[in-house]
Each structure stands twice: as C-alpha cells, then as structure tokens.
Amino acid sequence: MRVFHGCAESVTDEGATGALRRLGEALQALSQRALAAEDFECFEREVHALFVAAEREVLGGELARLDVDLPHVSIGGVRYHRVLRSPETYLSAVGPLTVERTLYRAGREPAVVPLERRAGIVEGHWTALAARQAVDRVRRDAPLGRQHLGHRRHPRRPPAADPPPRAGPLA
Fold first, then answer.
1. Could you tell me if 5 and 114 are in contact, meaning their C-beta atoms sit under 8 angstroms apart?
2. Chain centroid offset of residue 127 CA
3. Burial 62-79 (b: 16+ CB within 10 A, else e)
C-alpha cells in the first residue's frame, strides 16, 4: 500500500558522505598505528568494526528519511492521525538501527507506521535483508532438516554437505 503525504522534512545530517568521511579518517588513523604489521587479526577486526559502524550509520540515516512526521496521512483512502513519535530499534543485516518513527491511527483501527511500510520492515522489527538472512540461517541450521521448513534450493548455492560419518572408538 502506498502512503500519501506532503513534503516531510529531510534529515539534516551528512548522510552517507559524512559516514564515509569518518570511515576514511578512522582507517587513516588505524593504518598510521601500523597495527597490521604487529597483529593482523586485531587489525582485521578493527577494520571490520569500522566498516560495520559506517554501514549502520548510512542505513540508519536512510531508514530515518523514510519516516513521515505529519499531522495526518492517507493510506488506502483512509485518513490516519499522528498519535506518537518515538525511537524504535530495528534489526538490520549489520546490527540494530535506532531511529525516530511516527505512529498513526484512524479511529479504532490498529496503528500504522509509514516508515515500516515504506522500508518493508518485517514483523515490526526486521529489515527485509535481516529477515531473509535469519530465515536462511534457521533453514540451514534447523535440527529437523530443511525439508520440514519448506526449503527451496538456492539456484546458485549447492546444498550444504552432510558431515562425514564419525569413526568408531580407537582400539
């Protein structure tokens, strides 16, 4: 369903440009410490953490931009009135993202959150990619096996091989 609204205020942060600038500065500082030569595993972890933090910042900023903060919105021809604006944490593929979001209600109808509709949030908590990754993980690791969870074989991924049989006790 499409959410109709007037011009919502845009987020005034630096967005992806600022996140990438800060990432570059942090990487520069990290490389000046010459950590890679001393402990590459530690260097690798720090680089990964910097990229994840930048990715979360970019995703959080874009998710916040999808919010609609107006006195009322029209969804499917029904007029909803703003009832609450508060922070909410959504789980993304790179971790939690906390953003301000607005809830709307029409009479006794359940509240709607345009940000969640616009972003494709699953079950009020998961971004679409995080939900897909969680389902794939459960399907792969389910103790009952993939056939009980409606597993569809991914066209580009071969099914995981069963573990080799265990050898008997040593004599």
1. yes
2. 4
3. ebbbbbbebeebebeeee
Q: C-alpha angle with apex 60: 138 to 36, nearest 5 degrees?
A: 80
Per-residue pLDDT tens for 109-145?
899 999 999 999 999 999 999 999 999 999 988 776 5
Q: 14 vs 74, which has greater pLDDT?
A: 74
Enumerate the β-bridge partners of residue 91: 96, 126
Beta-carbon contacts of residue 84 (< 8 Å; ≥ 6 apart): 102, 103, 111
- The position carrying tokens 């520069």 is 28
Among 115, 119, 112, residue whose Cα is nearest residue 79: 112
Chain segment 94-103, per-residue pLDDT in tens: 999 999 999 9
